[in-house]
Design brief:
Blueprint (H helix, E strand, L loop, with lengths): L4 E2 L3 E11 L2 E11 L9 E7 L6 H5 L20 H15 L6 E10 L2 E9 L18 H19 L5 E2 L6 E2 L2 H8 L1 H7 L1 H10 L3 H10 L6 H11 L5 H19 L11 H6 L5 H14 L5 H19 L4 H14 L4 H7 L4 H12 L1
Parallel strand pairs: 4-6
Antiparallel strand pairs: 1-5, 2-3, 5-6, 7-8
Helix pairs in contact: 3-4, 6-7, 7-9, 8-9, 9-11, 11-13, 12-13, 13-14, 13-15
Length: 363
């Protein structure tokens, strides 16, 4: 199990390995909630994505720190002023390069007790959002209070090492008893307020209510009935809505794959698109769904990944943190036609050399 926490949010990524005839299936599940960060003040890894033709050494020149440096603002938590200033300085420097149209920096905790820093750039201007939510629709306060209480308890559970999770029913239930009791409340909420949850997700101008709705709707008993709602929520302009929706879909897809008689179809298109996002969270979460959807090695999906997400997958597969790189590495191996066992055995070797071998087949 590998836990990661994003600055300004907890980003918990559970890496589950299931063995069948020595073949391993990796299921990556992400959860994002607003809270604090680690006490570690050092940077262990700096990685990049979306660079394309922009050389990483040009990007590195905008960073006032290097790997193993101590970052001062991490010593002054909960004051976030230092982080905001640092972020503005680095992003401003990156955008001063005429080749870079968008830039984003995220601190992610932790590897060997040190922070990881992910720098994302894009040479394309941002798309205009033509799907702005404008309606004055809110959830009952009991649902939002339950969600907010769950966030606070989850932080405590993670810090105490009690954040185990049971997804056997197709939705998240933590093994920590107080947390589980709170999460079980979403089951009757989803049954009673399904239509309202759908309307909030589609139309509400209140981002927090959409965040809560994207979590609560996942507990509805008929998972096939909410797949489209969650897929649409994965396109929301709020990063936390997208995160909750994609996390829920990752659980549901693996749940439904154990029940093939349900014959549920989930389009990979929103998640392939998000692999090209400037947001590290979008890429890190979308890989979870794409891993699950590609378990069957559908040739059309693998061809679509090759044509529309190859560069993001290469970026991810080359990340220094093995836990974060593995999703991209697995998908590259599948696109290259490698068997699952071959992919996992090769991951123990020089990863860069293995990626080059995959790409020589793919290209």
């Amino acid at each position: 199990m590998a836990d990661t926490y994003a600055l300004g949010a907890i980003d918990r990524k559970v890496l589950i390995m299931k063995g069948t005839n020595q073949l391993l299936t990796f299921i990556l599940i992400g959860l994002r909630i607003q809270t604090a960060w680690s006490q570690s003040p050092q940077v262990g890894i700096i990685d990049f994505y979306g660079a394309r033709s922009t050389k990483t050494d040009i990007i590195s020149k905008c960073l006032p720190f290097k790997e193993n440096d101590t970052i001062r603002f991490l010593l002054t938590y909960p004051d976030t002023t230092g982080y905001k200033k640092l972020n503005q300085t680095i992003v401003g420097c990156l955008l001063a390069n005429p080749e870079i149209k968008r830039a984003k920096m995220e601190f992610v905790c932790c590897v060997n007790g040190k922070w990881m820093v992910f720098i994302g750039v894009s040479e394309k201007a941002s798309m205009v959002n033509n799907n702005v939510k404008t309606k004055d629709i809110q959830l009952p306060s009991e649902i939002t209070r339950t969600y907010d209480s769950m966030e606070l308890l989850l932080l405590t559970a993670i810090q105490s090492g009690e954040a185990g999770e049971d997804n056997s029913q197709g939705h998240a239930l933590f093994t920590n008893i107080p947390l589980r009791k709170l999460m079980e409340r979403f089951i009757p909420y989803s049954e009673k307020y399904l239509d309202l949850l759908r309307d909030v997700l589609k139309y509400s101008k209140y981002s927090h209510d959409r965040i809560v709705a994207s979590w609560a709707i996942a507990y509805y008993h008929d998972k096939s009935a909410i797949v489209n709602d969650l897929s649409e929520a994965a396109k929301d302009d709020n990063e936390d809505v997208r995160n909750n929706a994609i996390r829920a879909l990752g659980i549901i897809i693996n749940y439904l794959q154990q029940k093939p008689n349900l014959n549920i179809t989930i389009s990979p298109d929103p998640f392939i698109s998000l692999m090209n996002s400037i947001s590290w969270s979008d890429r890190n979460k979308s890989i979870t769904v794409l891993l699950a959807l590609s378990n069957s090695r559908d040739p059309k999906l693998l061809l679509k990944l090759k044509s529309e997400a190859l560069e993001p997958l290469i970026d991810m597969a080359n990340w220094k943190s093995e836990a974060h790189a593995m999703g991209g590495y697995i998908l590259l191996g599948r696109i290259a036609g490698w068997k699952e066992q071959e992919i996992f055995e090769s991951s123990k070797k020089n990863r860069s050399d293995m990626i080059d071998k995959m790409l020589s087949t793919i290209k």
